[in-house]
Design goal:
single chain, 415 residues, alpha+beta, Butyryl-Coa Dehydrogenase, subunit A, domain 1, four-stranded mixed β-sheet, four-stranded antiparallel β-sheet, 39% helix, binds flavin-adenine dinucleotide
């Protein structure tokens, strides 16, 4: 493995040669993808460099500090599908699915949760029935983030209702644009529609697009969830990026639109030390910085940011890892979100009640953060579920009692 200094130097010289503000997003991602820098933690046979998270963080920091546009890392294809496929799929599937993710040509969504199966994900009812060399899929998914701009979905469906619930599930790469698939956006209290309901009525997927083998979907889905928690809980500098896929409408735009943006549209930095500093500046300007309660809450937030940073550093050291890092990181992130909400609204005072551009100090960014803040403690597995996992899998406490383990899925009581 190269050292951090070697990675930085090598990437710096590659960027000197290749970064060009006159490129479109599509051209830049095409240039970046074959180098391995677009997703360094992927194995070499999947377009990555096989590096650990420590060296991937060096790549992120270098790109962020150089103010160049990053890879299509905001997409669930990059974040979840590529590493899952890299870990479980055949080489043929890797060659089919991963390159268009790294070049940002396609967008992916995660078709896991159902109206009756969220925390109890293995209780899912969406079914897949074999028909020749295809599977016929029927069921409903919900809370599907980015479903309206996705070309492909990571779909888990029941392929054997006679098996116990964890053992009769398979994982598919599922085409979204086909007859029988209806995507309906759900508007959240932020006013935006991040996620969707997806109705699937006798849609089809090739047997060749099953990832990880028949009835092995629970193990594959757990890899996706592990990558999700690790990524949601990770701290550190990241370069700016854009929504991948043709429906994301960024591919033909100039990279300059997405580089050099330290602050998000409302003039407020994204969650992290920069936003904390921004709150301190606002409170200093308004005079609220002398309020002892606000000062106490600011320091609590500062401590949370530092603990998360140190936790991320520890997770990079194989000798210090316990296996609990993704769950702890995710719990930290949801706690930080809530604390950013509390501090942000306190800094704004009564203005915090104003919505959108009518809020004069941050143009509505704090309001948006506040209304979104319940989300992180739910998605990727709720806080309670993270604690259950820590208790059962890490601390070895007894599992929750229940008949689920050995009983065929079809005989279990349903929601
Ligand atoms: C912003 C956002 C984006 C999302 N994006 C996606 C996506 O792209 N794809 C996708 O598939 N899903 C997505 N989800 C769905 C998310 O994964 C589920 O909402 C989550 O797993 C919880 O499931 P549920 O909503 O059915 O709640 P439930 O499972 O019904 O839980 C309700 C409450 O009961 C508690 N609870 C349940 N079981 C236990 C237990 N055994 N022990 C202790 N407490 C328990 C929970 O913690 C929670 O407080 C998203 C959710 C949000 C908020």
């Amino acid at each position: 493995m190269p050292s951090a200094e070697e990675v930085r130097a090598e990437l710096e010289s590659w960027l000197d040669e290749n970064w060009d503000e006159s490129l479109t997003v599509e051209q830049w991602w095409e240039r970046l993808a074959p180098t391995g820098y677009a997703h360094p933690t992927l194995p070499g046979n999947a377009g990555g460099k096989g590096w650990g998270r420590d060296l991937a963080a060096v790549v992120n920091t270098t790109m962020a500090e150089r103010e160049v546009m990053g890879p299509p890392s905001s997409g669930l294809g990059w974040m979840l599908a590529a590493p899952t496929i890299g870990a479980h799929a055949t080489q043929e599937q890797i060659d089919q699915f991963i390159p268009p993710i790294l070049t940002g040509q396609v967008g992916w969504c995660q078709l896991f949760s159902e109206p009756g199966a969220g925390s109890d994900l293995a209780g899912l009812a969406c079914k897949a029935e074999k028909d020749g060399d295809e599977w016929v899929i029927s069921g409903q998914k919900v809370w599907t983030s980015g479903g309206q701009v996705a070309d492909w979905g990571m779909l888990i469906a029941r392929t054997d209702p006679d098996a116990p619930k964890h053992k009769g599930i398979s994982y598919f790469a599922f085409e979204m644009d086909q007859p029988g698939v209806t995507v309906r956006p759900l508007t959240e209290m932020t006013g935006r529609a991040l996620f969707n309901e997806v109705f699937i009525d006798e849609a089809r997927v090739l047997d060749a697009n099953m990832i990880g083998g028949l009835n092995n979907g629970w193990a594959v889905a757990n890899s996706t969830l592990m990558f999700e928690r690790a990524s949601l809980g990770s701290a550190g500098k990241k370069p700016q990026t854009a929504t991948p896929g043709k429906k994301g409408k960024a591919l033909q735009r100039p990279v300059a639109d997405f580089a050099k943006k330290e602050r998000s549209e409302g003039g407020v930095p994204s969650l992290g030390p920069g936003l904390w500093q921004h709150y301190v500046e606002l409170a200093t300007k308004s005079g609220r910085i002398t309020d002892p309660v606000l000062r106490q809450e600011l320091i609590k937030l500062y401590s949370l940011i530092e603990i998360n940073r140190l936790g991320t550093l520890r997770a990079k050291d194989p000798n210090q890892r316990t296996g609990a890092e993704p769950n702890i990181g995710k719990l930290h992130m949801s706690e930080m979100f809530r604390q950013f909400r509390e501090v942000g609204l306190t800094v704004l005072g009564a203005d915090g009640m104003l919505w959108g551009k009518s809020e004069p100090t941050t143009g509505g960014s704090v309001g948006e953060l506040a209304t979104f803040s319940p989300g992180p403690s739910i998605y990727g597995g709720t806080d309670e579920i993270q604690r259950n996992i820590l208790g059962e899998r890490i601390l070895g406490l007894p599992r929750e009692p229940g008949p689920d383990k050995g009983t065929p899925f079809k005989d279990l009581p349903k929601n």
